[in-house]
Amino acid sequence: MNKVKYYYNTHTLKYEKVEVSISRKAYRIFGFFAAVAVFSAIIISIAYSYLDSPKEKRLKREISQLELQYDILQNRMQQMEVVLNDLQDRDNNIYRVVFEAEPIPLEVRQAGFGGTNRYKHLENFDYGKLMVSTTEKLEQLSRQLYVQSKSYDFLINSVKNKHKMLASVPAIQPISNKKLKHMASGYGMRIHPIYKTAKMHYGMDFTAPRGTEIYATGDGTIKKAETDRGFGNHVVIQHGYGYESLYGHMSKILVKPGEKVKRGEVIGLVGNSGTSTAPHVHYEVHKNGKPVNPVHFYFNDLTPAEYQHMLKISSQANQSFD
Length: 322
Known about the structure:
Glucose Permease (Domain IIA), ten-stranded antiparallel beta sheet, 14 strands, Dup_hybrid_motif
C-alpha cells in the first residue's frame, strides 16, 4: 500500500493531503531511469576498458595461438632455407662440375619477380605485415624448390647419357674406410713437415699401415707409374673427360703405364717413399690440368654424416705428411 503524505497548510491551519500530479510522477520516473542509464553506461565503459568479456578472452587466446603458430612456421621455413641452400651449393659446386655443366646463376635460383604489390589485400589486417612476410617467404621457397627440381631433372638426364663418364670420375677414397686410420691433412695451405713453412698442399693425405692396398678411384688408363724424389713411388691415372688422379709415396707399385684399370682396382700399397714423414698416400685430383679439392669427389663412398666429418677434418689447419 502506498504511503500517504500530508503537509500543514498555514492558511487553513489544517493538515492536507499531498497530491502529486501525473506529469510530476512521470518526470520523477524519467529522472530515475535516466540516472540509472547514465550510471550503467559509466560502469559498462569502465568494465570494457579494464575487464575482458568471455568472448574477448577467447579471441585473445586464439590470437596468441596464431602468433605462436606463425613463429613455428617461420622457424621451419628458416630450417628449410638452410637445407635448400646446401642443396643449391652442392648442385652448383659438385654435381654440375661433375657433369661439366654451367652453374645456375644466383638471380635464377632466387626466382624473384617484380611488378605490382601482390599482397596488398593482406596489408589491411591487424597482423598484415606478419602475414605478408610469411606468404612471401613461402612463395620464394616454392619457386626455389621448383628451380632445384628442374636442375635435378637435368642431372638425371645427364646421368643416363654419361654412364661411362660417371665410371671414370674419381669418386671414391683411395683407401678403404675399414683400414683408414684418419685423414691426416686436407687441401689448402698447410705446414710442410720438413721445412716447417706454410705451403700449398694440393691433395689429401690418408694415413694407413704400410702395405695397405691403394685403389684406383675411377676407371682410366695408367699414365705414369714411376719414382721420383718428391712423391716417391707414385701412379698417375688418366680418367678422360679432363680428369687425372695421383697417388704418391707407395711402398710398391702394382700397375704399369698404359694399363687399363677399373674403379676399386688395387694399383699399389701404402708406403713412405719420397719426401714423406710417415706411411700414407698423398692423393690428388686434377681437372683440365689444374688441381682441385678431392674432398668434393667422395659422393660414391661416404654417407652424409661421414662426408660432413670429412669436410670438418680436411679443413683443419695442420701439418701435412709430405
